[in-house]
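B., you asked whether I could sanity-check this one before it goes into the benchmark set. Here's the sequence:
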Amino acid sequence: MSDDQKLKDPQNPSGPVTVRNMTFHVDRDLCIGAATCVAIAPNTYIMDSEAKAIILDTADNDTDDALLDAARGCPTAAIIVQDKDGHQIFPQ
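And here's what the prediction gave me:
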């Protein structure tokens, strides 16, 4: 992680965090470091020193579609997404 990259929530680097109308977090037990999320939503995810996805403060710069696509693209479904009412959107 470079000096210009900041975490959305430094106390909980893998979330949960809220971006617009969605809350999401990375299940660190499921994350295998494939980095598909980084490729799809580069403003949102970066890999930490343990090769686990963590959420950047710039997550608001990725579209809602990119955030959902990043979750859907994860080979282990490690990214859990909920709507504003707390209903799980992904995985279903």
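One thing to flag: Residues 17-85 form a domain with the Alpha-Beta Plaits fold (CATH 3.30.70.20). Otherwise nothing jumped out at me.
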